[in-house]
Amino acid sequence: MTRTRNPDSESESESKPSSSSSSSTGMKLIVPLQGVVQGRGGILLGSLIPCALFYFLQLYLKKRRRSNHNNHSSNPPSPSSSFPELPRTPSRSNLSSRGSITRARLSRLASTISDDDSAYYVGLNRASRDPYHKFSNPDGIIQLGLSDNTLSLDLIGDWMQKWGSGGGDDDLSINGIATYQAFDGVDELKLAMADFMRQVMGRSVHFDTSNMVLTAGATPAIEILSFCLADPGNAFLVPTPYYPGFDRDVRWRPGVDLIPVHCRSADNFNLSMTALEQAYAQARKRGVKVRGILVSNPSNPVGNMLTQDMLYNLIDFAEDKNIHLIVDEVFAGSRYGSEKFVSVAEILDSDSEYIDNRRIHIIYGLSKDLALAGFRVGVIYSFDRNVLAAARKLCRFSSISAPTQRLVTSMLSDKRFIQDYFETNRNRMRQVHDEFVDALSKLGIKCAKSSGGMFCWADMSGLIKPYSEKGELELWEKFMSIAKINITPGSACHCIEPGWFRICFTTMSLEEIPLVIERIRRVVEVCKSSS
Amino acid sequence: MSHQQLLSKIATNDKHGENSPYFDGWKAYDRNPFHSTKNPQGVIQMGLAENQLCFDLIEEWIRNNPKASICTPEGVHQFRDIANFQDYHGLPQFRKGVANFMSKARGGRVKYDPERILMSGGATGANELIMFCLADPGDAFMVPTPYYPAFVRDLGWRTGVQLVPVHCDSSNNFKVTREALEQAYDNAKKSNIDVKGLIITNPSNPLGTTLDEETLKSLVRFINEKNIHLVCDEIYAATVFSAPKFVSVSEVMQEMKCNKELIHIIYSLSKDMGLPGFRVGIVYSYNNDVVSCGRKMSSFGLVSSQTQHFLASLLSDEDFVNKYLETSKKRLAKRHRFFTKGLETVSITCLASNSGLFCWMNLRRLLKEQSFEGEMKLWRVIVDEVKLNVSPGSSFNCSEPGWFRVCFANMDDETVEVALKRIRAFVGRETNDNNNNGKRVEVKRWKSNNNLRLSFNSRRRIKSGYTLPNMYG
């Protein structure tokens, strides 16, 4: 921002104001000012100089303010990259909302949302417009960018067939489900959910229904929690790479910023406490109020788990800084690897005397672990009475549809079915994962170590040129147009190292793997031949 | 350090408006709910605008159409596609069904485009969503009084939007006048408040009246001139049970020049179809930018795919929809007539209404003091002693004390009888008391900051024991 001065010119500096506004030019001007005071410079200079000084001071301050806005998403990965695809913060969208006088004025938020062209969403849209189908559209785009699990939907379909229609007229009766229900979920569902979570997280963990608020999906759950825990302009720290949807859930309407804490491949993208401390300190220096840490466990998009030690570290850190810890455990039941999963609830359960659990909040839902994304069932689990009270009022905007509550209660209460589902699903996931990762490595594409989630975090940095976000996005485009596969580029997940891609494997059957690999091979060959 | 400090302003302020007496009465009901056999002395819920008159029709349809439910053997094969479906565009058949229903509720005089239909978490979510699209924190929306109390929460809590009331009063049956609009708009401008639009509820909650075509046209002209938005909350569209017929803003738009991009409709199935538990809220906008950004925001309140699937079938059944709309109208008319006639036997009048699930009851002659304190006192007596949860007009920001909203469609005939009996007994007691006291009560009109009109209407001077001239039907 400040131009470096040529030291030679210092002694000969005129009283003419320099265009540099650094305070180090003060000396340059004091000398002529002295002259003015002593009557040599004249009134003209005496008035010119302070005015000019003042003008350039304002310019400098304005520039600094603008760059602070630009640095909202701090720690830009590389100076050479730009982020055309990342959602811009609201402060930069003022311009687009000022249309002509006769145009209808919309909100600033509306402009931000319209401008959001993250590759994550663009990819989803393109794939949905030309979806692959084995028979009717074999050349369509294969959707591997949405973490959906279709591997075990048949099991759920079977259950529905056997038990879905319940006992006769009872379940067909409108009475009781048509009317207004408790907006944070009916008691029966909460009980069933508490039990289900116990099964998923670990048999020893106890979940209390009075700590639960049910919402129409995990998406509004995260948004509601953001509204409760932070004010607009505040921030959460979030390890990268992270789920692109967080940008929408936390930033859009709550106006809470996400400060990335970069994780690197050298650590298998595990979080380092040093990086966390640094990010926190930098935020504070910039005057940003950090209200919490947001982590996903198992992690999306990498698929690794937080160790028990790391969880304790995070809890201690949150305690020390007096901030919240939000753990998104939506993939808790989608595990296929050997790494042990520890839910933060387990730690709180066992160490309740030493830990203030009121600052820890869990997000859960049925979209991943039970493949019921369409049904919109999410959970906020918190120990803080005030957070729960506020969340109960806020979930008024996102309540679960009553007939769905009834259906899901039924399903979750069938413990035997749930157990069977998890076992079978785990095996199927493991099979597909292992085979797919193996096939990828034969193409020269290595994946990060993962034990949970529905995706591989694949290193394609060898295929991109240049080694930058631009190169990564060009590769992404190649996947879309040549291979006709939608995968998620790491930049959409704010990964600091270019070239990583998230590929969801749970919408592929074992039989379809060769087809997908074949398409990926096309791109690999194109890249290799052009290099 | 106090844990309260760890929460956001939104979590700790009371802009959710739930401290209003509107919600207080519900608490009284929750503590002691009426049941015809188990708790006949309990509080009767007349503060909840729910439509329970036509469940039998829906149940019959469900029995005859097992394919519509993915829970039945006939319908379960669709489960795979439905369970996974979380596209924020919504099921095309669902949107078509809703567009079809909306059109039928307007007598087929307008057609709706399924591509403009956005989902949200009930009408509550829909109202909030449209505000997020149209206004920034600190901006304002004008709203005619009296209005639905939860607008405070739905339109302003998380959005930061302020409500600028446009005062209406009984002198012209609470119609919105051009003068009132101009006044509210000018006052807002003077206070440096950026008014982004006007929101109306048509049919009105709590009045139960529909806007006539002329008034609606003048509203459209007004917003066009000021280049501000018009949000029409039409969730009671199909509850119009007698003349005049319902005129939607969509119809009026067809007949006059206006900037379509300023017009948005809020809809829901909670009132018209009595399915509030299903959480079906709809935003219909004629503005393409609003549709595209609102659609992305609908991720926070998507309708369950199971529900979408069911409703897609239900609402595309032409015969069913026709029969339902016809029957619902008749039953509402009957219930309304029964209830208002029952009130008239004790000289309680209601604002003449042709729609909604409630009456706007005039209890001014029962006030011991013609003020809002008097209204609150009367309300407490009605809730605690008469054991009826009715909603006081002040909670709807009504500018005149003495009006109460009473819902009549969320109970069976016997309960209505019990409610009427209690009212008759109460009014009888009150009238005797007043006769004995023989006091002359003078009217005190509440003057808001915005209401510069000061009128002394001689018709309003009340001698206790005399009934008001029956101007309101």
Automatic annotation (TrEMBL), chain A:
Leader peptide range in chain numbering: none
Keywords of the record: Ethylene biosynthesis, Fruit ripening, Membrane, Pyridoxal phosphate, S-adenosyl-L-methionine, Transmembrane, Transmembrane helix
InterPro entries: Aminotransferase_I/II_large, Ethylene_sulfur-biosynth, NHTrfase_class1_PyrdxlP-BS, PyrdxlP-dep_Trfase, PyrdxlP-dep_Trfase_major, PyrdxlP-dep_Trfase_small
Comp. bias regions, Polar residues: 90-100
Residue intervals passing through the bilayer: 42-61
Domain of life: Eukaryota
Pathway participation: Alkene biosynthesis; ethylene biosynthesis via S-adenosyl-L-methionine; ethylene from S-adenosyl-L-methionine: step 1/2
Start and end residues of each Aminotransferase class I/classII large domain: 143-520
Catalytic reaction equation(s): S-adenosyl-L-methionine = 1-aminocyclopropane-1-carboxylate + S-methyl-5'-thioadenosine + H(+)
EC number: 4.4.1.14
Stretch list, region Disordered: 1-26, 67-100
CDD domains: AAT_like (cd00609)
Family (UniProt): Belongs to the class-I pyridoxal-phosphate-dependent aminotransferase family.
Complex and partners: Homodimer.
UniProt-recorded name of the protein: 1-aminocyclopropane-1-carboxylate synthase
Source organism of the structure: Stylosanthes scabra
Automatic annotation (TrEMBL), chain B:
GO function term, MF aspect, one: 1-aminocyclopropane-1-carboxylate synthase activity
SUPFAM superfamilies xref list: PLP-dependent transferases
EC number annotated for this UniProt entry: 4.4.1.14
Keywords, alphabetical: Ethylene biosynthesis, Fruit ripening, Lyase, Pyridoxal phosphate, S-adenosyl-L-methionine
Catalysed reactions, as listed in the record: S-adenosyl-L-methionine = 1-aminocyclopropane-1-carboxylate + S-methyl-5'-thioadenosine + H(+)
Domain Aminotransferase class I/classII large: 44-423
Gene3D superfamilies: Aspartate Aminotransferase, domain 1 (3.90.1150.10), Type I PLP-dependent aspartate aminotransferase-like (Major domain) (3.40.640.10)
Alphabetized PANTHER family for the sequence: 1-AMINOCYCLOPROPANE-1-CARBOXYLATE SYNTHASE-LIKE PROTEIN 1, BIFUNCTIONAL ASPARTATE AMINOTRANSFERASE AND GLUTAMATE/ASPARTATE-PREPHENATE AMINOTRANSFERASE-RELATED
Family: Belongs to the class-I pyridoxal-phosphate-dependent aminotransferase family.
Record text on subunit structure and interactions: Homodimer.
Record protein name field: 1-aminocyclopropane-1-carboxylate synthase
Native organism: Stylosanthes scabra
